[in-house]
Amino acid sequence: HPRLSIYSGGPEADADLVVTVLSQDDETRTLTYSMPEPPFPISEHRATIEVQEGAGTTCYVEWSAEFESDPGIIHLLEDQLGDDVFRLALDKLATAAQEQHAANVLA
User: Fold this and answer.
1) Helical H segments across 42-86, by residue range
2) What is the pTM of this model?
3) Using one digit for the tens of pLDDT, what is the confidence trace for 53-72?
4) Cβ distance 59 to 53 under 8 Å?
5) Among 19, 31, 44, 87, which is most buried by a count of CB atoms within 10 Å?
6) Would you say 68 and 42 are in contact if contact means Cβ atoms under 8 Å apart?
7) Whole-angstrom Cα distance, residue 107 to residue 102?
8) Burial class of 50 by CB neighbour count within 10 A (0 to 12, 13 to 18, 19+)
9) Contact 68, 44 (CB under 8 A)
10) Torsion of the alpha carbons at 76, 79, 81 and 86, rounded to the nearest 10
11) Whole-angstrom Cα distance, residue 32 to residue 89?
């Protein structure tokens, strides 16, 4: 992965970021994980990704995270994590799903 600045002038995430899967439920399509050593100034991190069915070949992904941080920078982290980290990851997920669907159609 590319290096990612968490916020302008802030730390960068390591390409070898480690996450710990806390729970996975295939029936509800939910995955909860944490980062034992987050690359940004947070603690008590816990995130959940949930995939919900839509119409036809559509689905909706909800990705939320909870964490503790210094009150002076928490707004920067919330904005940057939502705008950059989650958006980039969800864009990659959408692209991979579209490519897989196209491959299945052509097969």
Assistant:
1) 74-80
2) 0.69
3) 888 878 888 888 888 888 88
4) yes
5) 31
6) yes
7) 9
8) middle
9) yes
10) -170
11) 16
